[in-house]
Amino acid sequence: MKNRLGITNSLELKEIEYYLFNIKYHIINENYTFNENNLFDIKYLEKIHIFLFHDIYSIEDCKIREGLPIEIIQKVNEILSEIKDIMYFYNPKELRDKIYNLWEKQIFYDGNTRTIL
User: Fold this and answer.
1) 49, burial (CB in 10 Å: exposed 0-12, middle 13-18, buried 19+)
2) What confidence category does residue 117 fall into, taking pLDDT thresholds of 50, 70 and 90?
3) Per-residue pLDDT reduced to its tens digit, 27-62
4) What does the alpha-carbon distance between residue 116 and residue 47 come to, in Å, rounded to a whole number?
5) Is 0.90 surpassed by the pTM of this model?
6) 48, 115 in Cβ contact below 8 A?
7) Long-range contacts, 54-63 (Cβ 8 Å, 24+)
8) Cα three-residue angle 115-10-2, rounded to 5 degrees
9) How many Cα neighbours within 13 Å face the side chain of 3?
């Protein structure tokens, strides 16, 4: 992915990315109330990913990877639905396992871990 800031030093890019991500994470955490019906859906996850990274990368690069098989998209939605159910009863081990299952699908080009967290 080509960054929109024109930064060629990978260490500098990672520092700026980290800084912007932390600011945006706090904005989300402190200022937004989410609609539970939409939150646990792959399209909403994509919106969060775009919000977190579009200052650095193009919106196209922030979207779900092109050519992702429909089976993976369906599985991601299934995992998100399961996470929603787990949240009601908060089972830490089960939640950890589902988050890992979601992460291993790698639906974005970069930043999967940060977006999923």
Assistant:
1) buried
2) confident
3) 876 666 655 666 788 988 998 899 899 989 999 999
4) 12
5) no
6) yes
7) 55/4, 55/20, 56/3, 56/4, 56/5, 56/13, 56/16, 56/17, 56/20, 57/1, 57/2, 57/3, 57/4, 57/110, 58/1, 58/2, 58/4, 61/1, 61/2, 61/109, 62/108, 63/108
8) 65
9) 16
